[in-house]
Amino acid sequence: MSPKTKPRSTDKAKDAALSYTLDEAPGFLLRVALRTHTAFFTAKMIEGLTAPQFSTLAKLREVGPCSQNHLGRLIHYDSATITGVITRLKSRGLITSYKDPLDPRRREIDLTEKGRRIADAAIETIGEISNETFSPLSQQEFRTLTEILKKVIRR
Fold it and tell me: Which residues in the chain belong to E strands, given as ranges?
């Protein structure tokens, strides 16, 4: 093939396939790392909290009362997902909702006292889970990984 001739599409696909190594692919590695973290999370998280439930409680503990819509955006859940999570946490007595005093069309979501206690304990537990998940990393590697993941998310 001359330097000016572009490889055909099938040649490009074949070249890509021949040079691809799954065990070096960042997307694959993220999936496997997440599976590892999820296994630790499921085994150790208190009160049977799921990852979305934990995220909801932890974010409410961090920011205080906020609208359901805003909360969903803060933890990267779509409207249907956050609605289901809120419903389940309400039924467990961990969160409450009330009319926003400044805008009666809007509902504010907040932790109950029980929810605050469980959120605090769950946040302590997630530290233990993260320590186990990321134990092969040095503190600097952990900070670097965190910054890289933020960069990927926020682009």
Answer: 66-67, 95-100, 103-111
